[in-house]
From TrEMBL:
One Gene Ontology biological process: proteolysis
Family statement drawn from the similarity comment of this UniProt entry: Belongs to the peptidase S10 family.
Signal peptide (residue range): 1-44
Descriptive protein name: Uncharacterized protein
UniProt keyword annotations, A-Z: Glycoprotein, Signal
Keyword Magnesium appears in the UniProt entry: no
InterPro entries for the chain: AB_hydrolase_fold, Peptidase_S10
Organism encoding this protein: Oryza brachyantha
A single GO molecular function term of this UniProt record: acyltransferase activity, transferring groups other than amino-acyl groups
Iron-sulfur in keyword set: no
Domain of life (superkingdom): Eukaryota
Length: 486
């Protein structure tokens, strides 16, 4: 394929929604993948020693790569692997997933538990800078960050049919990924293994856990050697009515809605605040929703900000570098202000869509046009598990360890909602409600149930409490992985 023709294809694929429906552009990009990306049936990995924007060599071991998980449609899942910085020969291995669905595993690497952070400073047209994260969980565990389901981050398929996945099929692909990755990295089969993540990842993680546990019990290699211990979920989506049913009560407790309005909701909605059965209930919930919209759902203490994959705005100084070094991008969205947490997303959008970055990460040319932190609209996704609670309960009865984390200022999945579905399991209490501490201060509150289930709030934490309370989260994670009381 000639360079001129290849460049023309890349230009069209980079246009995205600016020139037409995103689905048409997805088809265009698939044609490009078929033309320029050679078929790969085995795993391919690279060791990364330097990253653009990070001063000097990386002080940790970083590996990136692709693993094919479906031959018929050519699905290739991209991953980032960071080896434990403490004792990699004995420390646990964690598979860390992002929410969405279809948010990149890079979220975990750069915003949550990974060893890099963006330097939050006003963008001046140069490549955003990176620094080491002193609260990285890689100080105590080796972590795999995965772009799943396909269509997330740099994961791709050669056939457009490969992008049509859901809760079940994508979970099975993660299990296939893990089998193949462990086959290439056999030393980790003997390590204690956990799965972790927040938000929508909290819905699919117990599904993945159950599939892994079943394969181990059926003695299917190579997972037979995997020492599956448990899982960690933060402000998890379950798909059940519990998720949204406690928002009015939580909003009332925070002073977002009045006594009178909450009492009207109780009187007219009969305990169901998700599916109103009559006009009176619907009208009350409409007023409540309007009031709740005045605050940031992810963290009621923060300013309401641009949330979905912020990009450089028209007239932004960032447009200076979006000519040669960057791929052709879609019509820009609003830019968040620097006081917003989402300014990090804006910086990552610029960083990831730089060709220097892609070369450093060893991204296959021609496979992905515009990188989006969360790619929710381009491809179909079937939420074919209405509720993951049965998976949680099944794993609990099998004795797998579970840490449920709730940022106590999240309105998306309030801690009251999570607490309610945990209580619905009717497990005996082993260690009753108490504070847990970091540096002599209450960092949140916790309770431990029978069957190895621990629930803990993070004081001041939002929807991804691990991200906005990293010091407290590191202490919590360390204690839990060490089987110590929080």
């Amino acid at each position: 394929m000639g360079s001129a023709r290849r460049g023309a294809w890349a230009w069209q694929c980079g246009l995205s929604s600016a020139s037409g429906p995103r689905r048409l552009v997805a088809t265009c990009c698939l044609l490009l993948i078929q033309l320029v990306a050679p078929p790969v049936s085995c795993s391919a990995s690279s060791v990364i020693t330097r990253l653009p924007g990070f001063h000097g060599r990386l002080p940790f071991y970083l590996e990136t790569g692709y693993v094919g998980v479906e031959e018929e449609t050519g699905v290739e899942l991209f991953y980032y692997f960071v080896e434990s910085e403490r004792s990699p020969d004995v420390d646990p291995l964690i598979l860390w997933l992002s929410g969405g669905p279809r948010c990149s595993g890079f979220c975990g690497l750069a915003y949550e538990v990974g060893p890099i952070n963006f330097v939050v400073e006003t963008y001046n047209g140069s490549l955003p800078q990176l620094v080491y994260n002193p609260y990285a969980w890689t100080q105590m565990a080796s972590i795999l960050f995965l772009d799943t389901p396909v269509g997330s981050g740099f994961s791709y398929a050669r056939d457009i049919k490969g992008y049509d996945v859901g809760d079940i099929s994508s979970s099975l692909q993660v299990v296939t990924f893990l089998k193949k990755w462990l086959n290439d990295h056999p030393r980790y089969r003997s390590h204690n293994f956990y799965v972790g993540g927040s938000s929508y990842a909290g819905k699919v993680i117990p599904i993945i856990m159950q599939y892994i546990s079943e394969e181990i019990e059926q003695r299917q290699r190579p997972l037979i050697s995997l020492k599956l211990q448990g899982y960690i979920v933060g402000n998890p989506v379950t798909g059940s009515k519990f998720d949204g049913n406690f928002r009015p009560k939580y909003s009332h407790g925070l002073g977002i809605i009045s006594d009178q309005l909450y009492e009207a909701a109780i009187r007219n909605c009969k305990g169901d605040y998700v599916d109103p059965k009559d006009e009176l209930c619907a009208n009350v919930l409409n007023v409540i929703n309007n009031l709740m919209s005045e605050v940031d759902f992810g963290n009621v203490l923060e300013d309401r900000c641009v949330y979905n994959t912020p990009k450089p705005s028209n007239g932004d100084s960032g447009r200076r570098i979006l000519v040669e070094d960057h791929i052709r991008l879609s019509e820009p969205a609003d830019r968040p202000t620097i006081n917003c947490w989402t300014y990090r997303f804006y910086l990552s959008y610029i960083w990831m869509n730089n060709n220097t970055t892609r070369d450093a990460l060893k991204i296959r040319k021609g496979t992905i046009g515009e990188w989006l932190r969360c790619n929710k609209k381009a491809f179909p996704y079937t939420m074919d598990v209405p509720s993951s609670l049965e998976y949680f309960l099944n794993l609990t009865t099998r004795g797998y360890r579970l840490l449920v984390i709730s940022g106590d200022h999240d309105l998306e999945i309030p801690f009251l909602s999570t607490q309610a579905w945990i209580r619905s399991f009717n497990l005996p209490i082993v260690d009753d409600w108490r504070a847990w501490h970091v540096d002599g201060q209450a960092a949140g509150f916790t309770i431990t149930y029978a069957s190895n289930l621990t629930f803990a709030t993070v004081k001041g934490g939002g929807h991804t409490a691990i991200a906005n309370k990293p010091r407290q989260a590191l202490a919590m994670g360390q204690r839990w992985l060490d089987n110590s009381p929080l």
